[in-house]
Amino acid sequence: MKIETLCIHGSKNKYDTTGAVCVPIFTSATYSHPAVGESTGFDYTRSGNPTREHLEHTAAALEGGADAIAFSSGMAATSALMELFSPGDHIVASDDLYGGTYRLFEQISAKNGVSFSYAATATDIAAAITSATRAIFIETPTNPMMHVVDIAAVAKIAKEQGVLLIADNTFLTPYFQRPLVLGADIVLHSGTKYLGGHNDVLAGLLIAKDAAMGENLRTIAKTTGAVLSPFDSYLVIRGIKTLAVRMVRMQQSAQKIAAWLQTQAKVAAVYYPGLPNHPAYEVSCRQAEGFGGMISFSTTDSQTAVNLLERVKIIQYAESLGGAESLITYPALQTHADIPEEVRVSRGIDSRLLRLSVGLEDAADLIEDLRQAMEG
Q1: How many helical (H) and strand (E) elements, i.e. helices and strands, does the chain have?
Q2: Does the annotation count 168 as an active-site position?
Q3: What average pLDDT score do residues 33-41 get?
Q4: Can you give the residue ranges of every domain in the chain?
Q5: How far is residue 157's CA from residue 257's CA, in Å, rounded to a whole number?
Q6: The one catalytic residue among 67, 168, 185, 369
Q7: Catalytic residue, candidates 52, 96, 175, 193
């Protein structure tokens, strides 16, 4: 089944006898038992809910995994993921990470005894592995600098070292990239972003390559409790139905905007994997079916960045990404503010850097909005 069809029919079980085209929203917190020692398959919504299960089956099908677990946010999913590890364990992570992930690692997981090293390339990741390493955690493309990690190369390292490979696939989604197929063990999504697609729901997903890991993660979710509600599960199911058409349209616009940004005198650098001059363009072409709708760019000075944020009219100055509305973000003050300044600046996340999530508006309108905001 093609992925466009999977987005709409990823789970055939709608738990309904009426012929409803859409999966019902099962709001029940608890479920009655047909007899002592028997169950309908659902007992309590924290451990399982039909609407959420429909989403989980769809997500697993899209990523090519054995199981998926839906959480109340992307950070809830990442927090549950960290419960796989114990004091003394070590994780090697991408050196360019979403600020919330970095904050979790350094302020929560570290105090619980898990240590972290940060590396960019497959070679650097291999060099950072120690006898205590239990996992490699990558984003690709990374947030916000749009670095691309060679998933297959890192998967080979992980397999040789006997450690897990966890890949955050939020930016490209399974429509453009499938890390499990390339050798990852677990895929993470902030379902708030492209999967939900409408800036109206918080959600997170973990997809496991094998059933045993899926069961382990499901036990953690049931025990820690930050699972996705039935209504929010429905919203993500609804969003996924249009994932394919949205990703294609957003990418088409992003390519036009990235090319235009490169011609602007007030833009010092453009970071978009779909540009042939991107350092990892060939890796992107090899491991992904597309480049997505996320662009980061550096202006020539801080004032130009501030002017853009304050003068855009169609594009909205806001956090988050992946929705129908185009959003522009100031990582240094928003998504990555909790990363120490010296670390941020060393990675290019300074007062000149902006991150643009290209939405579904007409590309020409978005370019004109950026032009007028830059020129004032």
Answers
A1: 14, 12
A2: yes
A3: 94
A4: 3-241, 243-375
A5: 36
A6: 168
A7: 193
Q: Is 193 marked active-site?
A: yes
Instruction: List the structure tokens of 373.
Output: 């905001």
Rounded Cα gap, residues 54 and 22, in angstroms: 11
Active-site choice (52, 95, 96, 98)? 98
CA distances from 278 to 272, 283, 284 (A): 7, 10, 9
- CA-nearest of 82, 84, 74, 71 to 226 is 71
Domains 3-241 and 243-375 share a fold: no
pTM of the full predicted structure?
A: 0.97
Is 159 part of the annotated catalytic residue set? no
Grade residue 12 by pLDDT with cuts at 50, 70 and 90.
Answer: confident
Q: Is 46 a catalytic residue?
A: yes
Tokens of 362: 């007409």
Burial 19-46 (b: 16+ CB within 10 A, else e): eeeebebbeeeebeeeeeeeeeebeebe
* In the predicted structure, residue 319 carries a pLDDT above the cut 90: yes
Report the distance separating Cα 357 and Cα 123, nearest Å: 30
Catalytic residue among 14, 31, 46, 103: 46
How far, in Å, CA of 147 to CA of 95, rounded?
A: 10
Query: For residue 4, is pLDDT > 90?
Result: yes
Question: pLDDT tier at 13 (50, 70, 90 boundaries)?
Answer: confident
CA distance 80 to 166: 13
Architecture of domain 243-375: Alpha-Beta Complex (3.90)
| 3 state SS of 170 | coil
313 is written with which tokens?
A: 């009219």
Assigned token pair, 18:
């009426």
The mean per-residue pLDDT over the stretch 167-191 comes to: 98
Q: Is the pLDDT of residue 201 over 80?
A: yes
User: Cβ distance 283 to 142 under 8 Å?
Assistant: no
**Does the domain at residues 3-241 carry the CATH identifier 3.30.1120.10?**
no
Q: What is the mean pLDDT of residues 156-181?
A: 98
